Amino acid sequence: MSEHPPVSTPHRLVVVEGPIGVGKTSLARRLAHSFGSELILEQADENPFLERFYRNPRSAALPAQLFFLFQRTRQLEDIRQHDLFDTVRVADYLLDKDRLFAQLILDEKEFALYEQVYARVAVDAPTPDLVIYLQAPVDVLLDRIERRGIRYEQKIERGYLERLQEAYARFFHDYDAAPLLIVNAAQADFAANARDYAQLLEQVLKIHHGRHYYNPLKSAADD
């Protein structure tokens, strides 16, 4: 990636969200590079229960989810301990999505226990200046998961991704806590294609409030 001066942005905290395989972490990295900002990642590879969860969801759903909850709240508490206006930050998750996953993967009794823990440990998470929600069909997600080749992710089932897609769609249908950019990421490659990324960055810098939709043109890589 070539070196350029940081892009000036009105946003102090930008969050990229979306289901597994949609490219949120890659986009968050590129935005952080453009802004010369701090990057906040959920670091799924540190979760010792994740591989077991994807292999047999019922055997590890609760410990996997609690690990993520503790990890995310620690990171957000660190943000709270510093002046949010000191620097621009880009993150690849919303704390709100922790409950989204919990509702999806836990049974009724496990979720009741999770809610008790959440109420005790969840910090008052900073409100983003912009949330970017990436969407793509399940077939695209499965293809990207296969191509990136993370071993434990290869056990993810189509049905799980379909339920996850639906949960994200419901969540963001009513989301109004921050400005929201909903992006069709099915054909674009924001990580590797310069034109795709430049066009998205232009949209990101324009948004100050409200709900917006962005459907990029077919990637130049496919021309």
TrEMBL record:
Gene3D superfamilies linked to this entry: P-loop containing nucleotide triphosphate hydrolases (3.40.50.300)
Keywords, in A-Z order: ATP-binding, Kinase, Nucleotide-binding, Transferase
Domain Guanylate kinase-like: 11-202
A cellular component annotation (GO) from this entry: cytoplasm
Residues at the catalytic site: D92 (proton acceptor)
CDD domains hit by this protein: dNK
UniProt keyword annotation of Iron present: no
Key word Transferase present: yes
A GO molecular-function annotation: deoxynucleoside kinase activity
Stored Pfam families: dNK
Annotated ATP binding sites: G18, P19, I20, G21, V22, G23, K24, T25, S26, R144, I145, E146, R147, R148
Top-rank taxon, per record: Bacteria
Protein name per its UniProtKB record: Deoxyadenosine kinase
Organism: Steroidobacter denitrificans
